[in-house]
Amino acid sequence: MDFTYTSEQEMLRDSLGKLFAQSCSFDQRQALLKNGHAHSEIVWAQLRDMGLLALPFSEIQGGLGGSASDLVAIGELLGRHLVIEPYLSSILLGGCALALGGSATSAALEAVMAGETLAALAHEERHGIGAPALLGTTLAQDGNALRLNGEKRLVLSGAEAGILVVSARMGDHLALVRVDPKAAGVAISGYTTMDGRRAANVRLSGVAVAIADILLHDAEAALDGVLQSAQLMLSAEAVGAMHALLEASATYAATRKQFGVPIGSFQSIAHRLADMKIACAKAQALLLYTTALVETGKGSGRDIALLKAQMGRLGRSVGESAVQIHGGIGMTDELAVGHYLKRILAVEAMLGSTDYHLRRVGAG
Amino acid sequence: MDIEFGPELEAFRREVAAFLDAAPTPEIREAGRKTTSVFAPFEAVMKWHKILHAQGWAAPAWPKQYGGTGWSAEQRFIFAEEYWKRDLPPLLPNGLQMVGPLLMEAGSEEQKAKYLPGILSGEDYWTQGYSEPGAGSDLAALSCSAVADGDDYVINGQKIWTTLAHHANRMFMLVRTSSEGKKQQGITFLLLDRTDFPGMEIRPIIGLDGIPEQCEVFFDNVRVPQSARVGAENDGWSVAKALLKHERGGSAGNPAMYRKLELIRAVASGTPSPHGGMLGDDPVFQRDLGELEAEIASYAAFEKLLLSGHPISADPSMPSINKVISSELAQKVSVMMTRVAGVDALPLQLEALTVGSNVAPLGGDLDLVAMPYYLNSRATTIYAGTNEVQRDLIARVLPVA
Questions:
Q1: Do A212 and A251 lie in a common domain?
Q2: How far is CA B386 from CA A5, A71, A168, in A?
Q3: Quick check: A167 and A221 in contact, CB under 8 A?
Q4: Which of A65, B91, B107, B130 satisfies CB 3.0 to 4.6 Å to B111 for a cystine?
């Protein structure tokens, strides 16, 4: 048994950590967002130059064939540094869904890996996705044309993407369809999420689809694979964020004085910090164990569901404790603590909520 | 990354499984099913101890030179997994996990030769005399005294939470031999060859579960030889702490939790829900069972990380974190058992719970054990250093930037 990163992964983490410390500090992040940027083009180009935008794709597709632990190794750092670059949206969701089209989409995928365009996966619906059979978006024959109808929510990078991949029910199957964001019938309303990301709601009203734009006719299993890798990445981000919160809170409690003593000397605060540390240990262990399961081909969707749910539960408790320990200053926008909490809340809500995944696990 | 134990260990697993399938008698299996505590039913578990000893497997964690198996941490983990799959009663921990390793660390050669064989074979059962009415979490405040008199010590005072003392033939204890200096400095560690010395009185305490598992022990001018001392006089605190070295790494508590989860799931699928249908199909139940499984899985992953020597195992607070997680998880599991049992957890069934009573339980096996296990498990967060004390320890080594 071995749950450690390889020396190559440690080296990558080392250089990535330096890049983030230098170019993705909290102040830099906040300045970008304040000036209306979705992310830093410079950092995005640096991630491309490090090969990270090509990491999850197979070598045949021009990628690096990265493993689950490669993704988790960088995911923890994305979470720890609150990185807003669209790695999850354009690479793991949009890009990996696009890659399912095989040779038909290889040119588009190359552009995504080169960082020239963003891809987005339009999958969430209503108040959050659950079982694929419940998707409301349809792809159906209408006279001579195939048409898409439906309404997608929380399409990450949806307004910035040059390529949309849409999940839709086609008869008894779940299909994945490539859609031009500028096509007739596509209405995109972009917004900023509370955790500083860009997303959009996308209305599809009779959008004409060519047969060649159907990436997969029977995509349920393949889409599940894409979602699982994104859920693993989100879980890694949550663990990175939790460790950052533990460190910030422990440091604050050791220095902040009230009643003449550091607040960490009060048992109520000390025990809350101990609980945060326990939660971090549990979260890190489950993340690494599940990663090893996936890496060795033994992981199932159920294992990922359990992980995602547990990260939501543990992450929320760590985030809420961090705000409480910081007191009034923890309530302000100027401190990173609240932004970590918000990232964790986003992780918890998207790609199947905690309750959804827990019930799946409990059902057997 | 790799989750496998390695192919050579699969043969070991088969060997363990074959033995554990064949060796336990019906009485021992019954004791396993009726175990509602860390401490299994006494007589049956001591018989099982002797069977395991004959196989050479009574002390998986002991070094070979003292009659242990010499197994690696991975082998011990596999043994625990196979053990718990079969609902077998766990061997009593006081000798094998507490005083035995302590003697290996701090005992004289004479003491090791005299006491370790009896601990290993299951001939002896040792009760632990640490806590007192006035010394629980603050153990160093203990006042039960031993005064040197010729070649003897004369003991006066009281011990409490001496588990199964009424079945014990030996006792290890901490006594006060000096009230000078810091309170930790006047403590001495003693081994008692008997539990029926003149002046010694053992009174069982009925617990919340209705079972006399704990005892109090009174000492009225009890005379024991000074050769019973481990280490130097007034150095008992460091002797007792030497045991901590044996508690690091290599816990394997999760297989027992997974086994109970399996039982809960199976019973729930055949238990009617008050909303109609089966409890196992009830959305609220499913959500909560999912949460329980997620917690067990987290603990299992945590144990495996420690076992594999992952860098987090070097964190000095890991033994405390382990204690908090495992004890609170045991309580959560016990709560879920009582939820599934519902009103069938309410009949008091002490006779049916007794091994060999031949009294059929009302309801099923889970109904019989759910409430006693729940009630007994309230102690998990109290004993071995309360979880409040553990959290104090965890908070001492936080990652401050």
A1: no
A2: 35, 39, 54
A3: no
A4: B107
pLDDT band for position B244 (50/70/90)?
A: low
Is the minimum CB–CB distance between B290 and chain A shorter than 8 Å?
yes
Please name each of the domains of chain B with its CATH number: 8-91 (1.10.540.10), 126-235 (2.40.110.10), 248-395 (1.20.140.10)
Q: Which string of DSSP letters, residue by residue, matches A242-290? A: HHHHHHHHHHHHHH-EETTEEGGGSHHHHHHHHHHHHHHHHHHHHHHHH
Asked if residue A161 is part of any domain, the answer here is: yes
Phi, psi (degrees; rounded to nearest 5) at B61: -95, -5
pLDDT of amino acid B248 = 43
Q: Does A200 touch chain B (CB under 8 A)?
A: no
- Answer yes or no: do B312 and A250 touch at CB < 8 A: no
- Beta strands B152-160; B214-225: pairing state: antiparallel
Q: Are A100 and A108 in contact (CB under 8 A)?
A: no
Q: Is B181 on the interface with A (CB under 8 A)?
A: no
- Residue in the block written with tokens 């939501």: A312
Closest alpha carbon to A91 in A282, A226, A291, A275: A226
- Given B285, B290, B401, which is nearest A247 (Cβ)? B401
- Rounded distance between C-alpha atoms, residue B89 and residue B38, angstroms: 9
CATH code of the domain covering residue A31: 1.10.540.10
- Yes or no, beta carbons of A250 and B305 under 8 Å apart: no
Determine the pLDDT at residue A20: 97
Query: Do the chains contact at B395 and A274, CB–CB below 8 Å?
Result: yes
Nearest CA in chain A to B323: A278
Residues 121-150 of chain A whose Cβ lies under 8 A from any Cβ of chain B: none
On whether any CB of chain A is under 8 Å from the CB of B261, the answer is: no
A192 falls in which pLDDT band (50, 70, 90)? Answer: very high
Per-residue pLDDT tens over the stretch B203-229: 999 999 999 999 999 999 999 999 999
Separation of alpha carbons A312 and A344, rounded Å? 7
Chain A residue numbers touching B398 (CB-CB < 8 A): 246, 250, 253-254, 264, 273, 277
Q: Where are the alpha helices (DSSP H) in A24-142?
A: 26-34, 41-49, 68-80, 96-99, 106-113
- Structure tokens that stand for A300 in this block: 């199932």
Please name the member of B3, B289, B290 whose beta carbon is closest to the beta carbon of A1. B3
Give the closest residue to A105 by CA, choosing from A214, A257, A244, A29. Answer: A214
The ipTM (two decimal places) reads 0.96
Instruction: Looking at the structure, tell me whether residues A173 and A282 fall in a common domain.
Output: no
| Nearest neighbour of B400 by CB, restricted to A69, A251, A291 | A251
For residues A222 and B253, what is the distance between their CA atoms, to the nearest angstrom?
37
Q: Write down which residue in A218, A251, A286 finishes a domain.
A: A218
A302: containing domain: 221-362
What is the count of residue pairs from A and B with beta carbons less than 8 Å apart? Answer: 157
Kindly report, residue by residue over B5-53, the tens digit of the pLDDT: 888 899 999 999 999 999 999 999 999 999 999 999 999 999 999 999 9
Using left for φ > 0, alpha for ψ between -120 and 50, and beta otherwise, residue B164 falls in left
Strands A173-179 and A214-216: antiparallel
* Helix B318-341 with B254-269: angle, nearest 10 deg: 20
Q: What is the DSSP string of A50-82?
A: TTGGGTTS-TTTTS----HHHHHHHHHHHHHTT
pTM here is: 0.96
Chain B's closest residue to A271, CA to CA, is B391
Of B285, B301, B392, the CB nearest to A285: B301
Q: What is the CA B342 to chain-centroid distance, rounded?
A: 28
User: In DSSP terms, which residues pair with B398 in a beta bridge?
Assistant: none
Cβ of A286 and B301 within 8 Å? yes
